[in-house]
Amino acid sequence: PLLLLWFDGEEIKTDETIRTLAQKWQPSRRPRSEERNTKAVDTDMIVISCMSKPSHCEKATEEINVVAQKLITNSESDLQLSYAKQRRSKSSALLHKELDVRSNRAVRQYLVKVNQAIATLYARHVLALLLADWPVEAQLSEEALELNGASHMAYILDMLMQLEERLLWEKILQRVLKGCSQSMLSSLSLTACQFMEEPGMAVQVRESKHPYDNNANFEDKVHIPGAIYLSVKFDSRCYTEEGCDELIMSSSSDFLQDVHSFSGSPQKWSDFEIPGDTLYYRFMSDMSNTEWGYKFTVTGGHRGRFEILKQMLADVRVLSHLPVADIWEWQVGVACRQTGSQRLKAIHLLLRLLQCQCET
């Protein structure tokens, strides 16, 4: 801060008022909270060891969730921009967190972390463009891309799938599949099979009193870690006084992004999907007339890991180089062990494998 001084002969003095103001300008020493001390971690890509074969399953897991699952969402194109927005927000939060943690240290120390974060983001998009423009006749190799193993390519594709627009990612995948050797394709497909073994997302249910109270003003959120989007399904009995008692939902705590509002008879409550891993909701009622209320189920969804294997099975040239018997064994195991949308996706791939056999 600029400190104003005045002179009295040869002695330099500081006005007491200016000195008091200067104290206010000094940066306050904030307490070292747990959140600020937590190391910022980028969780976009976590590589786990690849299993050669699935574990044996004697009996299929029983379905406990009665909510109908959507195998292929109809609104994916509408959610595309929101996916990108969610990713940018998380990257921004990661960078802000790192800066905040190191704000009380020397500038040179945390600028190194800033440069690393920016370099990582830049490198990802360069990699996406590199793979998209890779010459069709060129062979991709583990050495050229400095991979830890052939299966590592599946994790790179999975990461890029969540960062890039769908059309660009599909172009990347097509180029990668054309450039992969037979052994690399085999490893890529089996790693994609292993992706299907992910634990199912938790399902959460929220509901009001039945009937709800007058003068209600309730606000809460549903958070499912790891979800790329959330599917919301309403109970068929949902009913509130139309125009007076309203349930508002959003992907942001300020209720400004991806807003959905519901009020009135059961016909007015339509299922929907919202990007991100957190759903914020608020319910308000007036001083008179109440109805049954609301009840909804929230299911977390993945985007992409199912798509890698789906795209591979759709490419006739690639299909001839895949270990179909091993993929079949994997998907039968996944269909038995998983429930809900993961089970449906595995069954979808099994049907595709049968169709491929009929075509060949």
Structure, described:
It comes from Goodea atripinnis. InterPro entries: ZZEF1. This is Zinc finger ZZ-type and EF-hand domain-containing protein 1. By secondary structure, the chain is of the alpha+beta class. It is built from 12 helices and 10 strands. It has a 4-stranded antiparallel sheet with strand order 3-10-5-8. A hairpin with a 2-residue loop joins strand 1 (6-8) and strand 2. Helix 4 packs across helix 7, helix 8 (182-195) crosses helix 9 (305-314) and helix 11 (324-337) runs antiparallel to helix 12. The longest helix is centred in the N-terminal third of the chain and has 26 residues, at 76-101. The model is unreliable at 1-12, 30-41 and 69-74 (pLDDT under 50).
Strand-helix topology:
Blueprint: E1 6-8, E2 11-13, H1 16-25, H2 34-37, H3 76-101, H4 107-132, H5 142-145, H6 152-163, H7 166-179, H8 182-195, E3 203-207, E4 217-223, E5 229-234, E6 246-250, E7 260-262, E8 272-275, E9 278-284, E10 295-301, H9 305-314, H10 316-319, H11 324-337, H12 340-359
Antiparallel strand pairs: 1-2, 3-10, 4-9, 5-8, 5-10, 6-7, 6-9
Protein name: Zinc finger ZZ-type and EF-hand domain-containing protein 1
Organism: Goodea atripinnis
InterPro entries: ZZEF1 (IPR040099)
C-alpha-based Rg, rounded: 27 Å
Helix content: 40-55%
Beta-strand residue fraction: 5-15%
pLDDT under 50 segments (min length 5)? 1-12, 30-41, 69-74
**N→C terminal distance:** 77 Å
Strand order of the largest sheet: 3-10-5-8
Shape: flat
- Count of DSSP E strands? 10
What is the mean predicted local confidence, pLDDT?
A: 75
Q: Helix count, per DSSP? A: 12
The largest sheet is:
4 strands, antiparallel
H-E order:
EEHHHHHHHHEEEEEEEEHHHH
Helix-and-strand structural type: alpha+beta
